[in-house]
Amino acid sequence: MGKKPHIYNKNKGREMLEFVKAQTMNNNLPFAPDIADYLGCSVSALKYWRDHYPEFAEAWEEMKEITLAMLAKKGLTREYDASFTKFWLKAVYGLRETDEIRVGNAADQDGNAESFGLTVRVVGPDGTDL
Questions:
Q1: Residue 4: inside a domain
Q2: Which among 14, 51, 16, 11 has a CA at the least distance from the CA of 31?
Q3: CB of 17 within 8 A of CB of 40?
Q4: Chain segment 38-70, per-residue pLDDT in tens
Q5: Model's pTM, two decimal places?
Q6: Which domain holds residue 85?
Q7: What gap in Å lies between CA 67 and CA 64, rounded to an integer?
Q8: Apex CA 61: angle with CA 17 and CA 8, to 5°?
């Protein structure tokens, strides 16, 4: 039997953030089913609340920032598998990689010629730098 529908109240966003912060402090990356279990609702209820209650949507975005920071940190320190981290950043957060290559003879401050450079950027789904 599934969970009963849970009635929304304005404390749900705060409760979610408290749970997520506690989980990340304990080095746990919470997923939507974990959050739903904690709040006593379904994942679909979380999505409904995010789409229909501005204060919950704001808390949801803050939660994503917290988990994104943890995911990036754990990926960079190799505590999480690089393939998992890359997949999750693309799938959940919509991030993508871009490579920019400059070719030419640009001079640095000391007048030394630079034959080429490589810049790797991480951009959001809308194409803006993160």
A1: no
A2: 16
A3: no
A4: 999 999 999 999 999 999 999 999 999 999 888
A5: 0.67
A6: 12-92
A7: 5
A8: 60
3-state secondary structure of 79: coil
Answer yes or no: are the C-beta atoms of 17 and 62 closer than 8 Å.
Answer: yes
101, β-bridge pairs? 118
Secondary structure tally for the chain: helices H, strands E: 5, 2
Q: Are residues 81 and 130 in the same domain?
A: no
Tell me: do 129 and 105 sit in the same domain: yes
pLDDT single digits (tens) 16-35: 999 999 999 998 999 999 99
Whether 81 maps to a domain, the answer reads yes
C-alpha triplet 47, 55, 44: angle, nearest 5°: 10
Q: Is the pLDDT of residue 115 over 50?
A: no
- Domain tally for the chain? 2
Under a CB-based contact definition with an 8 Å cutoff, are residues 88 and 71 in contact?
Answer: yes
Q: Assess contact for 67 and 52: CB atoms under 8 A.
A: no
